[in-house]
Design a protein that fits this description.
Main location: cytoplasm
Shape: elongated
Number of helices: 9
Subcellular location: Cytoplasm
Binding site for GTP: 166-173, 191-195, 214-217, 280-283, 308-310
CATH topology of the largest domain: Rossmann fold
Helix content: 10-25%
Number of strands: 18
CATH superfamily of the largest domain: P-loop containing nucleotide triphosphate hydrolases
CATH architecture of the largest domain: 3-Layer(aba) Sandwich
Protein name: GTPase Obg
Largest sheet: 6 strands, mixed
Distance between the termini: 65 Å
Domain Obg: 1-159
CATH class of the largest domain: Alpha Beta
Structural class: alpha/beta
Length: 441
Amino acid sequence: MAFRDVLNIEVAAGNGGDGSMSFHRAKYLEKGGPDGGHGGKGGDIILRAIEGVESLERLVGKRKFKAPNGNYGEGRLRQGADGEDIFIDVPVGTTAFDEDTGKVIADLVTVGQEKIIAKGGGGGRGNSTFTSSTRQAPRFAELGVAGQKRRVRLELRLIADVGLVGYPNAGKSSLLAALSRANPMIADYPFTTLSPILGVVAREHGDERFTLADIPGIIEGASEGKGLGLEFLRHISRTRLLVYVLDVTRDPIEELRSLQAELRTYDPSLLENAALIALNKIELVEADIANMVVDELAEFGLPVLKVSAKEGTGLGELRETIFQMMPEFELWAERNALEIEPEEVLAEPLKITFRIDPAARGASVVSDGQPERVWSVHGGGFEEKIVRFSRYMEEAAEYLGNLFKRQGLYNALKRAGAREGDTVEIGTFRFEYFDDEDKKE
């Protein structure tokens, strides 16, 4: 199966079911009361992190996900069933971005972690909800809310405890194979590793273990997208400890400077991670040369261990040093947590605009022969409320008028200069403004 660490999908949560407009019917009962039940909630779209998957490839072939709608409410106060939630299983380490805003909406770093990425719409209330002392038989109900729709980019950043970082052919794959049970392709040419490879390393005595990732070779300019750079640099950000693998036969000092420069350009916080240096291929040089290189690497302030992946030299010490330097997962996760977009988005502030509208809805003048004065209402949540009664607009007009009055819309219109008989426009709906301070629901 091919390795895929970026995938674009479209998700649509379920719509809420409409509330019921119903009246009780029974033998010998001439006029029953309202008994419309509420509609069910629409299903959510939920990301769920699972074990045993190291690529987003399993989702290929299905790029669109739609959750079921909630059922309609029914008479006798029966509530409609909620729509079933849809779960999308992804590898641990998956981050989800809203394509339109670029914001992080989910960051799954532990097995079983779940995050709603598209919320189902709420169900509408049945007509039984809208009774009052003056409205004992409401002939309207509330419609359900549309489910959230999103275009989402999934990015997999493999979660490994330790990441091997180095230039092509520095011996990372050989080191991974020597330390763990992984069996990567090993050859004497650059870019043998075309995707991250994970291995598990056990402590020599005890049950402790860590996962080790061979990150494909970085080249100069990787942080700008050259070579395989950006394809795999993201995986380094998920590791708790970095092991810089340097070839002692090349120029390890200059290579380490260049490696750190690429990491700094991509994400400066990467250089704050715990790190050490594995000076590889020491079997190819004299001992005094290897020691001299170790002394020169001291300027970087990192532990340096001389190893030979080919002959097994120094691997036990390297393994033990990694165990000792490994940061606690909880502390690491807290420091590396991504900022998630808030679940609730506040309603837009109320905005009222005025215009003279001589041709509104096909009528050039109003009854007094003057151009029509129109007040357009935006924000404040009023359009969302009114849409939920669009099927019963005439019957619900009085209820909505009193609702908007209680919520301060009429006072806001009055302060803006509205006069009796002016038109109030909310979305595609129009009403006549009246100034009746004594009107009660």
